[in-house]
Amino acid sequence: MNKSTQCEASEMLKRAGISPSYQRIMVLSALLETDEHPSADTIYKKLGTNIPAISRATVYNTLNLLVDRGVIHSMRTAGSETRFDSVCEAHSHFFCRKCKRIFDVAQQSGEIETELDGHLVESQDLVYKGLCRECRGEMIK
Ligand SMILES: [Zn+2]
Ligand SMILES: [Zn+2]
User: Fold this and answer.
1) Does residue 68 sit within a domain?
2) 106 C-alpha vs ligand 2 centroid, how far in Å?
3) pLDDT of 121 above 70
4) What angle (nearest 5°) sits at the alpha carbon of residue 57, between those of residues 56 and 61?
5) What's the CA-to-centroid distance between 124 and ligand 2, angstroms?
6) CA–CA separation, 13 vs 26, rounded Å?
7) Is 59 left (phi over 0), alpha (psi -120 to 50) or beta?
8) Which uninterrupted H or E stretch holds 130?
9) Which ligand is closest in space to the CA of residue 73?
10) CA 34 to ligand 2 center in whole angstroms
11) Considering every ligand atom, which ligand is closest to the CA of 130?
């Protein structure tokens, strides 16, 4: 795993007031290195091959802590699986119903409403669904 990513992960943890243990750094690094919005299980399997000592509970707890402190974001897919995202700028998502990958796409809706029915809007998670570029290609073949 990339050394500079680990430095970045360590800095992000410190800024969020989380003590940067080796396992936490590895969990966050794994997320920073992918744009595929993995589930906790995907991250656990990826790390498990390099760090045999890491437990599933550590991965889950670390991800939840990172979401709590606003370091990363989580979202639920249609199948109500929780997936994680390290990108913090406002963006929308595209969920492919075939390969189940989630892609970042530019925020489409221009202005975000700040108030709806008296509720204060703090963020907006827009998820488009359909077939991704690759899966579309396979359908055409
Ligand atoms: Zn796809
Ligand atoms: Zn995203």
Assistant:
1) yes
2) 10
3) yes
4) 125
5) 12
6) 11
7) alpha
8) strand 127-130
9) 2
10) 10
11) 1
For residue 93, being part of any structural domain is answered with yes
Residues 64 and 37 in one domain: yes
Per-residue pLDDT, 141: 65
pLDDT digits (tens, 9 = 90+) for 80-103: 789 999 887 778 889 999 998 999
Q: How many CA atoms lie within 13 A of 16 on its CB side?
A: 21
Contacts of 10 (CB under 8 A, 6+ apart): 20, 25
Spacing, Cα 29 to ligand 2 middle (Å): 16
Which domain does 96 fall in, by range?
A: 89-140
Q: Which two tokens stand for residue 24?
A: 């936490």
Q: Are residues 9 and 55 in the same domain?
A: yes
Residue reference for tokens 């509970």: 57
- Both 60 and 112 in one domain: the answer is no
Q: How far is the CA of 79 from the centre of ligand 1 (A)?
A: 15
- CA of 38 from ligand 2 middle (Å) equals 10
